[in-house]
Amino acid sequence: MDADTHTLADDQALVDEVLAGRPGAFERLVTRYQKLCWHVIHRMVRHAEDTQDLCQETFLRVHQYLHQYRSESALKSWIAQVAYSVAKRHLERKRIPIAEPSEADGNSLLEQARDDFDIESASIESQSAAHLHAAIECLPPMQRTILTLYHLEELPIGEISLVTGLAEGTIKSHLFRSRKQLRDALGESMGVAA
């Protein structure tokens, strides 16, 4: 069973086992959510050694504050929120901006945001996969992270809002801009009009 198929009851049972100090419980939690943690942090910091250190810091914080988890949302979202917070603090300490300067986010931009952009279909051929990866890496950390949470981790916008502390409209705006930048970048690199 992977992290995506756990119910809130499953999450709470695992949390209860960890809090009770059952042997192997915390290791199961780490194993279940280490890929999520890596995705969130690596998309923000893009440095493997820093990502590894920050993942360790994340799980130390998870262990330290697990008693504060309330099964009102998925454990996956709570852990992603901790990982996001750790990565964001890291970038702030290094004075690395996490988002590009805000453009005028009018309602028309939000109305144009579409959920039907299929990021996976853009990587059908290996060459387009390389172009897609390069285009994603060129996005600001915030947009890379939101794309990862939405398309790879399949978190709904409401949960991404909980993870990042951003308003849902802001997340939709970031998704819209990211998709547009990816379409433009992929169109240029593949010689296709976007």
Keywords:
Butyryl-CoA Dehydrogenase, subunit A, domain 3, Rna Polymerase Sigma Factor, Chain: A, mainly alpha
CATH architecture descriptor name of the largest domain: Orthogonal Bundle
**What overall geometry do the principal axes of the alpha carbons give?**
globular
* Top-tier CATH class of the largest domain: Mainly Alpha
List the secondary-structure elements in sequence, H or E: HHHHHHHHH
- Could you tell me the strand content as a percent range? under 5%
Low-confidence stretches: 103-114, 118-126
* Computed structural class: mainly alpha
Per DSSP E runs of 2 or more residues, the count of β-strands stands at: 0
- Average pLDDT confidence is 79
How many H/I helices? Answer: 9
Number of individual domains: 2
CATH topology category name of the largest domain: Rna Polymerase Sigma Factor, Chain: A
Radius of gyration: 18 Å
Textual characterization of the structure:
The protein is mostly helical and 194 residues long. Helix content is 68%, strand content 0%. The protein has helices at residues 8-19, 25-45, 48-65, 75-93, 107-112, 126-137, 141-152, 157-164, 168-190. Helix 7 packs across helix 9.
What is the strand and helix layout of this fold?
Elements: H1 8-19, H2 25-45, H3 48-65, H4 75-93, H5 107-112, H6 126-137, H7 141-152, H8 157-164, H9 168-190
Briefly summarize what is shown.
It is built from nine helices and no strands.
